[in-house]
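User: Hello! I'm new to structural biology and keep hearing that structure can be predicted from sequence alone. Could you demonstrate with Fatty acid hydroxylase domain-containing protein? Please show me the input and the output so I can see what each looks like.

Assistant: Of course. The first part below is the input, the amino acid sequence of Fatty acid hydroxylase domain-containing protein. The second part is the output, the predicted structure written as tokens.
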Amino acid sequence: MKQHPRYHKNQIWEEARQSLITLFWASVLTVPILFAQIRGYTKLYDIGDGTVSSTYEVAQLLYFIVFSETCTYWLHRLFHHPFLFKSMHKKHHRYIIPTPFSAYAFDPLEAWAISLPVYAYSFLWPMSRHVQVLVFVCTNVWSFLIRIQLLPRLTYTLDDTREQLHTFHHKNVQLNCGQYFSTWDRFAGTYGDPMRYRRGNGGTKLSKKNRYCTCDGGLHCAFVFLGTFQEWEWPFFPS
């Protein structure tokens, strides 16, 4: 990794420094949300207290992943709007070959915004406190793994992994904006196959309207999706 020609001199130090600054200020911005949780303004509950069915206890993780992936994808695309990219997101993309120390090397306001889906779910629908903690732990571990070049080739398709998709995103900023999966990228036209790129078979071009991952009609689709999420007849979803 350090031998790559696009690896910055003193990059790890720069990434660690920015990550520490971001963690501090993002934590400050999160205090009001935590205060609201403590005061009972959310739908957090304890496992086994009878708030939801036992089936929902398990299904809520799937529902959260759908909700979080959708929100994070479109927030990520929003930060790739030319104005927000230049003023905020470019701080993260200065590292073409990211290391695990870049996991929090964002603008503090952007990092806080990207974390909002984890909290927002519990304001809208029931969420176990244990699941929320689990989500935070897994998301943090995941953020490090996709930058450490060690993920097994077990996810998404037979020829790509999230690790490869994320590294590819740093080399081609218009592509692969998803967090865990490539579903929204494929649906919205921002998917880039890193293996095809390596073989020189294309897979990196966007249509003109999606070139800068701006908020086009696809963003409207996302809001419609979120607006109807609770109205759908999800199995075992509490009313």
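User: So the tokens describe the shape?

Assistant: Right, they're a compact way of writing down the 3D structure. Reading them back into a model, for example: The longest strand covers residues 44-45.
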